[in-house]
């Protein structure tokens, strides 16, 4: 298991800020401390020993690789964000066979076995509904849907940005219906259109690419921006 501690980059101080709930949905205020399991290796069963007593408030884990019992144990001291790819089909996932012809486009550069999905497909949306429901049933506090800006990477469908704004808002609606918070993963071009329905953001390498200022709409609403620098 490769486990990497991440320092907060934009969300204010790395000191602990209290998490709160709006009804049954967790909020993630600017400054909340976090960590992320980037690669499980062969030791996902040890995640509780690795992180349960660590001094941070939020942990981001893979939805499919983390069982409900582990999530329940971790929630004694943390809020658990559950990761899945909402914008791609990964051929190793247990529901990969649910995608139909026409649901997938070009492959993701550098990621073998992974293809962009058609964000307008009702079947794709049904698959994502099931994933969000699974996150709720497993006890996740929030979801981290990745790869939601395929238009930037020319995913093979030729849709403009509005299709992806609509898709992210669909995901947010489904998360809300299941009493889950939801975050925006990267997808900086979508921020002005979706920040109001997101509880937090997760960014990869905004320091390297000088993009951190793009996340001000989140911190201005006291929403956490969790940063990863590789």
Brief summary:
The protein has a single domain, classed as Aldolase class I (TIM Barrel). Helix content is 23%, strand content 25%. It is built from six helices and 13 strands.
Could you describe the 3D structure shown?
The chain is of the alpha/beta class and 230 residues long. The protein has one domain: Alpha-Beta Barrel (TIM Barrel), CATH 3.20.20.70. It is built from six helices and 13 strands. The strands form three sheets. The protein has an eight-stranded mixed beta sheet with strand order 1-4-5-6-10-11-12-13. A three-stranded antiparallel beta sheet has the order 7-9-8, with no helix packed on it. The N terminus is likely disordered. GO terms for molecular function: alpha-galactosidase activity. InterPro entries: Aldolase_TIM (IPR013785), GH (IPR017853), GH114_TIM-barrel (IPR004352). Its EC number is 3.2.1.22.
Question: Beta-sheet strand percentage?
Answer: 25-35%
Structural domain count: 1
Q: What is the CATH architecture term?
A: Alpha-Beta Barrel
Q: Fraction of residues in helices? A: 10-25%
The count of β-strands is: 13
The fourth-level CATH homologous superfamily is: Aldolase class I
CATH class: Alpha Beta
Biggest sheet, spatial arrangement of strands = 1-4-5-6-10-11-12-13
Named CATH topology? TIM Barrel
Order of helices and strands, N to C?
EEEEHEHEEEEHEHEHEHE
Overall pLDDT score: 89
Uncertain runs are 1-16
- Note the gap between the termini: 16 Å
What Rg do the Cα atoms give?
Answer: 17 Å
What structural category characterises the helix and strand content?
alpha/beta
What is the count of DSSP helices, taking H or I runs of 4+ residues? 6
Shape descriptor reads: globular
Biggest sheet character = 8 strands, mixed
Keywords: Hydrolase, Signal
Organism: Lophiotrema nucula
EC number: 3.2.1.22
InterPro entries: Aldolase_TIM, GH, GH114_TIM-barrel
